[in-house]
Specification:
Blueprint (H helix, E strand, L loop, with lengths): L6 H14 L7 H11 L14 E5 L6 H14 L5 E5 L5 H14 L3 E3 L6 H6 L6 E5 L8 H11 L7 E7 L4 H10 L7 E5 L8 H9 L4 E5 L8 E3 L2 H12 L2
Parallel strand pairs: 1-4, 1-5, 2-3, 2-4, 5-6, 6-7
Antiparallel strand pairs: 7-8
Length: 247
């Protein structure tokens, strides 16, 4: 069941199993040991710590706004950081209002940007915080015009920033691969995986393993803020998937 959606991973595991003389039923510990040995540079073993300025990009519907609220809550309540929120997603009024409401609940500053040339001035309004989280317009990987629009906003941001690509793990593998490829033009340097609670197999886990070398920083598995956000350490991801899918 773990390898049914990934012939490549199955082939590698068969070789690993033969090498180590494994005959019993696969356990979670076997899976973890296999990944650590065979996928030495896997993205779950890497880290991209939050900088002062952090941007989330990704398709519509992957949960960027909720993820930003989770990260802001964690930084504020657990790490004692001051946080500011900035959104350029003025296309979706509901998303702006949602983020504004989170900011009010947390008691943190919130600003919106409607023109890329205003970004510098808006960032000055957040000059006193430790961490700035930027929400962006969602765009289908096929929507070249919207992607160019996002790129125009990002070009006005300081170069010293982290850009995280948010990907829904409930999407089909081909779509995930297309998103990883298309969004490269936005120069993302780490991933955040959302909607792990909606997955039905390990398919996209192996797809991420085999199609990216960038760090996976967080994974999300529900709507609760901030509870349903975890750092994407390999053991945590495998444990979550194993228990969720009852592998």
């Amino acid at each position: 069941k773990v390898f049914s959606e990934s012939p490549m991973a199955k082939e590698k595991f068969d070789a690993y199993k033969l090498k180590h003389g494994l005959e019993e039923k696969l356990t979670k510990e076997d899976l973890l040991a296999f990944v650590e040995e065979v996928y030495l540079e896997n993205p779950f073993q890497k880290e991209k710590p939050f900088a002062r300025l952090n941007v989330l990009v990704g398709p519509t519907g992957v949960g960027k706004t909720t993820t930003i609220a989770k990260i802001a809550s964690t930084a504020l309540l657990e790490e004692n950081k001051t946080v500011g929120l900035l959104t350029i997603d003025t296309y979706r009024i509901a998303a702006v209002e949602q983020l504004k409401k989170y900011a009010e609940i947390l008691g943190i500053p919130f600003v919106t940007v409607e023109d890329p040339k205003d970004i510098g001035k808006k960032l000055e309004e957040l000059s006193g915080v430790d961490i700035i989280l930027v929400d962006t317009i969602g765009a289908s990987p096929k929507d070249e015009e919207r992607l160019e629009d996002i790129k125009g906003y990002l070009s006005e941001l300081p170069e010293e920033r982290n850009t995280y690509l948010s990907i829904s793990m409930s999407q089909d593998t081909d779509t995930v691969k297309r998103i990883l490829k298309t969004y490269k033009e936005l120069r993302y340097d780490a991933l955040i995986l959302t909607k792990l609670d909606e997955v039905e197999n390990f398919r996209n886990f192996w797809s991420i393993m085999e199609n990216t070398v960038l760090p996976v920083q967080y994974f999300c598995h529900g709507q609760e803020v901030p509870e349903d956000l975890e750092e994407a350490e390999l053991s945590r991801v495998i444990t979550y998937l194993w228990e969720e899918l009852k592998a």
